Amino acid sequence: MSNAAPGLVPYQQIPESECRGFQDALELVGRRWTGAILLAAARGARRFGEYRAAVAGISDRLLAQRLRELEADGLISRTVIPSTPVQITYAPTPDGRDLMSVLQPLVTWSHRRRAAGTD
Length: 119
Description:
Elements: H1 19-30, H2 34-42, H3 48-54, H4 60-72, E1 76-81, E2 87-92, H5 94-116
Antiparallel strand pairs: 1-2
């Protein structure tokens, strides 16, 4: 009997050669603050201050660093609006939105765990 959801490859059948890609993906989303920043983006944060308000406890320096990393990873787009003063907005890319959709089961799992008191 398979543990995989319908249409998914059971983890036992994932080729060893693809494990590195899986590990890279886990390390990407597992970086400190990355999940909170992606969640803020999915909830509609666009300006730096909106991200800072949505991600309690993060420093400006670290937020700027993570936004640059997520932009380099193709998960967040950065748009410069030439105005006075210059405005910069951030938004999830299609890959960023796709990542958030595949993380939804993890969000659901974490809520179930917290409700059960096993957190």
